[in-house]
User: Which sequence fits this backbone?
């Protein structure tokens, strides 16, 4: 290396050798933050604060714009924006960024712009390719001193790996997910990206071993072992027109600056939704973690709803396992109690335009308030293009969203304010909680946006955290929807915890870090209106934590603290002023929550928790069998048996003139009558909703009952295959029921031919236990026959039972059949039967591999 450098020096000094162009350096500054862009030997580098300039650039199929560049011009401006969030650590945002756009040309006249923005919190840059291109790679990098402490996330597309604490140089070679945190001396740098959508893909950091550093970085120093380069998810990214890449972001400052930073959102596009009045953050009761099978049980979900109503938690999430046959009724039950329902979906339920156009309006018609969409598990351009499709589709239906199995937030909650939270974290559902890991998240993942950790769980027994630590997570972790993940009975067995959880907001006017260090401790103060909440979690031995209270206003304040005591949680109160010191005993791996409110003589900061009053809505008739276009005369009565008063009462069917009453007192009713018309062009069960709405403590409560109309389809004639008939209703344990194919996986039409022990059948139904399908016979058929069993497509033995029902009466059954059993003949006399139901149950040993066929299912009809 010494010989090569000497030779290069001799050549550069030889007579007649062309002089190398002098290096050019530009700065962009805002407040005390300065970013540096350098062009040296045709190559660009970028640095900010303690991050030394590191190579940047981009490569396309048409040009290598990581070198050979010539500077052609610069323009600058100040970007000032005020915007309001629906979620987050600070609802009202006011940002000022200094922006400079640098123009360069490369080989063949290819044009490149580098846009730099700097705020008081850090800096970011992006590339603009005015002529469009197919991007093959970025040369973007960050130079970190190898001795810098590092908190890194080994990359996976769902961001659920365990974070590691190491140094920049000692980190194992490999890929690391954003955001990544480094401590350089006394300054922190958090690296991430912003404004990613389907025009590009999601990136990550790649770290090479110290022995494999890139010569392009110049060797030595931060480059040797401390170089982190950008790696894209796709081998190529195609843009048909001018391309602006995502921002490469560095938040720089002390830990308080990093924790409170809004730079990721500040760089994102403004909201695409003008009216956000329907977007409502809040606490969610969630049953899946503590009771995996409970989402399939409507009775148990109603118990969660009753618990949420008692404590004024606004939401219940019904996770994987729900059934469309009972969801609308459960939603009505919930809304009458002031609780809204959220529903889980696999992302593939919305991966086509037809599915989005069909399912989302249906879900909205049930009264569902939002959806949890799961298992995207990709940072590819194709998946971000899917996000581009599902986000406006859900917004159009006024459905809020929680993304699970998802990428990290990169400003998405500013651009699409109906996104309440995202997972992208190793949360409580991993069933192993460690205090030290918990104290890293506030300084990394949660900085960039809402984090659905699903906290406060005694159901997770493999944990080293205390009860107060668990409760404090609801303050320390920010999430527009805070999914509290234990059973109602468990929370009620911890009444002091439940009392606090029913008071804590999920969005904040202001956030301040009071103390902490990743892996050790995190104490955060958050303001909601005139109330402050301090949440603290530690991974340290027992000690007394203290803080000044100079962030409070003048006058006296009531401080209520929930902490670990000798025999469970204890609550303590004292009067304080902003000049006082708050001291809280904290247990080993413990935590605490302190509420502070202006002192008015009250003994508590708690606000009254008043459940929605019980009401009764009756409809007459509750059901009717009609022909298309028939008229049904309906009477409805809405009653407040006791309590109240309630105001602004309206009673009406959808799209009909309402009966109104300004105030309703206990014991009073409102009545109405209407003529309703049965729809045409549909058959089967049709619900005509009758809705009562009223105002209770400033909130609108929705009470609904439905007149269920049955519109019979034409009865079958002659010999008929069941798979050729319209389904009156259907449910399936995995994916849709398939016609003339085996069940396959979750997508429609993805199964193979129906096959039982090597015999294939061209006609039949492919189902997955538990499953049920009903068809209309109208009394026109005499016999049913099929061959049933577990389909050959499964690789492990399943076990199922088949049942045939006529108008709800058992007609035939098989007992348990297994994958090794031959096809079993089933016959039933269906004379006089109006509705035929074919049901499959799981054989009593869970539904795994229970692909159940109704092969050659046929009817003999008149």
Assistant:
């Amino acid at each position: 290396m010494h010989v090569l450098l000497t030779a290069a020096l001799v050549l550069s000094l030889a007579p007649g050798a062309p002089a190398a162009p002098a290096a050019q350096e530009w700065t962009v500054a805002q407040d005390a933050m300065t970013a540096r862009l350098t062009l040296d030997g045709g190559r660009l580098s970028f640095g900010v604060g303690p991050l030394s300039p590191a190579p940047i650039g981009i490569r396309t199929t048409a040009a290598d714009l990581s070198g050979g560049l010539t500077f052609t011009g610069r323009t600058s401006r100040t970007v000032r924006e005020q915007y309001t969030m629906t979620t987050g650590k600070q609802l009202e945002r006011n940002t000022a960024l200094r922006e400079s756009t640098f123009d360069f040309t490369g080989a063949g006249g290819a044009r490149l712009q580098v846009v730099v923005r700097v705020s008081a919190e850090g800096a970011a840059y992006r590339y603009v390719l005015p002529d469009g291109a197919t991007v093959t790679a970025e040369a973007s990098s960050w130079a970190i001193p190898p001795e810098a402490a590092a908190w890194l996330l080994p990359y996976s597309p769902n961001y659920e790996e365990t974070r590691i604490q190491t140094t920049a140089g000692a980190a194992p070679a490999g890929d690391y997910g954003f955001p990544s945190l480094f401590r350089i001396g006394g300054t922190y740098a958090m690296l991430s990206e912003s404004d990613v959508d389907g025009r590009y893909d999601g990136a990550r950091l790649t770290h090479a071993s110290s022995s494999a550093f890139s010569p392009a970085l110049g060797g030595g120093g931060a480059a040797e072992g401390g170089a982190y380069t950008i790696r894209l998810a796709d081998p190529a990214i195609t843009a048909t027109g001018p391309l602006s890449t995502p921002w490469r972001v560095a938040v720089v400052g002390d830990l308080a600056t990093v924790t409170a930073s809004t730079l990721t959102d500040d760089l994102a596009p403004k909201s695409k939704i003008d009216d956000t009045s329907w977007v409502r953050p809040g606490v969610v009761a969630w049953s899946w973690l503590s009771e995996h099978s409970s989402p399939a049980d409507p009775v148990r979900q109603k118990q969660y709803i009753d618990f949420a109503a008692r404590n004024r938690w606004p939401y219940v999430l019904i996770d994987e396992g729900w059934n469309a046959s009972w969801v609308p009724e459960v939603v009505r039950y919930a809304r009458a109690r002031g609780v809204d329902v959220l529903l889980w979906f696999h992302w593939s339920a919305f991966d086509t335009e037809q599915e989005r156009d069909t399912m989302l309006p249906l879900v909205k018609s049930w009264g569902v308030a939002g959806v949890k969409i799961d298992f995207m598990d990709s940072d590819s351009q194709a998946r971000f293009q899917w996000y581009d499709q599902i986000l406006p589709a859900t917004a159009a239906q006024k459905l809020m969203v929680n993304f699970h199995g998802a990428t990290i937030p990169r400003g998405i909650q500013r651009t699409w304010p109906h996104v309440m939270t995202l997972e992208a974290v190793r949360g409580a559902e991993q069933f192993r909680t460690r205090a030290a890991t918990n104290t890293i998240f506030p300084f990394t993942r949660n900085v960039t946006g809402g984090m659905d950790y699903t906290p406060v769980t005694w159901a997770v027994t493999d944990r080293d955290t205390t009860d107060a630590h668990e409760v404090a997570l609801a303050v320390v972790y920010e999430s527009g929807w805070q999914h509290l993940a234990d059973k109602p009975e468990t929370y009620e067995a911890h009444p002091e915890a439940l009392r606090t959880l029913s008071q804590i907001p999920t969005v904040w006017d202001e956030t301040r870090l009071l103390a902490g260090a990743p892996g050790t401790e995190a104490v955060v103060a958050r303001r909601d209106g005139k109330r402050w909440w301090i949440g603290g979690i530690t991974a340290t031995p027992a000690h007394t934590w203290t803080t000044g209270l100079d962030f409070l206003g003048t006058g006296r304040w009531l401080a209520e603290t929930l902490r670990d005591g000798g025999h469970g949680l204890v609550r303590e109160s004292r009067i304080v002023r902003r000049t006082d010191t708050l001291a809280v005993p904290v247990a080993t791996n413990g935590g605490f929550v302190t509420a502070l409110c202006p002192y008015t003589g009250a003994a508590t900061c708690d606000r009254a928790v008043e459940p929605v009053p019980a009401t009764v809505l009756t409809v007459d008739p509750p059901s009717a069998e009609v022909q298309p276009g028939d008229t049904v005369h309906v009477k409805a009565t809405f009653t407040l048996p006791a309590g109240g008063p309630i105001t602004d009462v309206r009673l009406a069917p959808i799209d009909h003139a309402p009966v109104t009453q300004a105030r309703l007192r206990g014991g009073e009713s409102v009545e109405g009558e209407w003529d309703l018309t049965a729809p045409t062009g549909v058959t089967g069960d049709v619900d005509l909703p009758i809705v009562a709405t009223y105002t209770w403590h400033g909130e609108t409560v929705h009470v609904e009952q439905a007149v269920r109309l049955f519109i019979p389809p034409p009865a079958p004639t002659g010999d008929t295959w069941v798979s050729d008939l319209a389904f009156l209703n259907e449910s399936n344990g995995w994916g849709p029921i398939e016609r003339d194919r085996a069940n396959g996986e979750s997508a429609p039409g993805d199964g193979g031919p129906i096959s039982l022990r090597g015999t294939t059948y061209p006609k039949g139904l492919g189902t997955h236990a538990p499953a049920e399908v009903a068809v209309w016979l109208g009394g026109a058929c005499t016999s049913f026959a099929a061959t049933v069993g577990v389909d050959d497509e499964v690789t492990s033995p399943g076990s199922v039972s088949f049942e045939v029902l006529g108008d709800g009466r058992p007609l035939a059954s098989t007992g348990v059949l297994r994958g090794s059993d031959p096809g079993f003949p089933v016959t039933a006399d269906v004379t006089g039967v109006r509705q035929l139901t074919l049901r499959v149950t799981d054989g009593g040993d869970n539904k795994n591999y229970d692909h159940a066929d109704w092969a050659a299912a046929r009817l003999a009809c008149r």
